[in-house]
Amino acid sequence: MRQYSNEEMIEKYGKPNQSGTYLAYANIPFPLVIAWDTSVTVKRVRCHKLEVANVEDIFWNILNVYGLENINALGINLFGGCFNYRQMRGGSSWSRHSWGTAIDLDPVRNQLHETKKTARFARREYQEMIDIFEEHGWLSLGRLRNYDWMHFEAGGK
Question: Is the full-model pTM beyond 0.85?
Answer without folding.
Answer: yes
